[in-house]
């Protein structure tokens, strides 16, 4: 069987000391990639440091792979990319995976809870990706993953800070997919659901046992392989299932009969059921399609 391999490629996986990141690092390491196993080693609320990364590096080496540990925070992402360049002389793959939680109902959410979540998830991905971007552009090759969440796409009680950051990552990926296109830089988003310390008290126990990060790692690995040419996708995966998510527009409604008529609050009310009617929804993949659709509607 033809096996996809990553030999000659250098992969940076952030937050790879445990959970999903560890599964990604082990899989890529077992398929020939040289891996930078980044992990600050904090508790799940972002406090403290430890050496999770060393253990993963050892596991990769024990299986004959090549890896190096990096303990920097993603908010100093340039240091993580430097680790890749210093040790392996290149970087080809970046999986932005590091994450923490500071769940609180919105009223009780402190500014610190807000800022820390934005810093690790959104700013961390920005800093690490921007540090790799120059190399990716120069070599006309790069594969990037952002990690979002269904809590971001759909909202989840007690996760206003996390939802905002996770949806922010979708926006970041969408624009980078456009900016990276002519340099063969592919930027995609994974929406995982897996057993990890982030979900141990959220998922029901029997589901927790089944939702192994190993079931998601091949999806992410495929999306960072050189043969993978899609970009700007949001892929939701869990339990050996994967599906694409994206935004759609309803057919919409004209809010006035002719251009010389005013739009009134009442005309909006009277057309509202058609505004939100999702029958025959239109799939939107590119910003230009929004304009094309609008022009078509206005000509009716
Ligand atoms: P995890 O807690 O096992 O892994 C996250 C890792 O990131 C930890 O090892 C932690 O030490 C590290 N980390 C935290 N702050 C860091 C920083 N500033 N710099 C570098 N490393 C840092 O959790 P899990 O579940 O594997 O999460 C991985 C990613 O997947 C996160 O972005 C999370 O938000 C996301 N996610 C996970 C879901 C799940 O069901 N497990 C659901 C949706 C999203």
Protein model, in words:
Keywords: Fatty acid metabolism, Lipid metabolism, Oxidoreductase, Peroxisome. Its main location: other. Residues 9-182 form the Ketoreductase domain. It is found in: Peroxisome. There is one protein chain. With 300 residues, the chain is an alpha/beta fold. 42% of the residues lie in helices and 15% in strands. The chain is built from ten helices and ten strands. Helix 2 (52-62) links the parallel strand 2 and strand 3 (66-70). Helix 3 packs parallel to helix 4. The structure holds 1,4-dihydronicotinamide adenine dinucleotide. The site of 1,4-dihydronicotinamide adenine dinucleotide has 33 residues, from helix 1 and helix 4.
Write the layout of secondary structure elements.
Elements: E1 10-13, H1 19-30, E2 34-38, H2 52-62, E3 66-70, H3 77-88, E4 93-95, H4 111-139, E5 142-147, H5 150-154, H6 160-180, E6 185-192, H7 205-210, H8 217-223, E7 234-238, E8 241-245, E9 248-249, H9 265-275, E10 282-283, H10 287-299
Parallel strand pairs: 1-2, 1-4, 2-3, 4-5, 5-6, 6-7
Antiparallel strand pairs: 7-8, 9-10
The protein binds 1,4-dihydronicotinamide adenine dinucleotide (NAI).
Each distinct ligand: 1,4-dihydronicotinamide adenine dinucleotide
| Distance separating the two termini | 54 Å
Please indicate the percent range of residues in DSSP E strands (runs of 2 or more): 15-25%
Number of helices: 10
Q: Based on DSSP secondary structure assignment, what is the total number of beta strands?
A: 10
- Overall pLDDT: 96
Tell me the helix content. Answer: 40-55%
Q: Pairing-aware structural class of the strands and helices?
A: alpha/beta
Unreliable segments of 5+ consecutive residues: none
Largest sheet: 8 strands, mixed
Order of helices and strands: EHEHEHEHEHHEHHEEEHEH
Radius of gyration: 21 Å
GO biological process, one term: fatty acid metabolic process
Subcellular location: Peroxisome
Family: Belongs to the short-chain dehydrogenases/reductases (SDR) family.
Domain Ketoreductase: 9-182
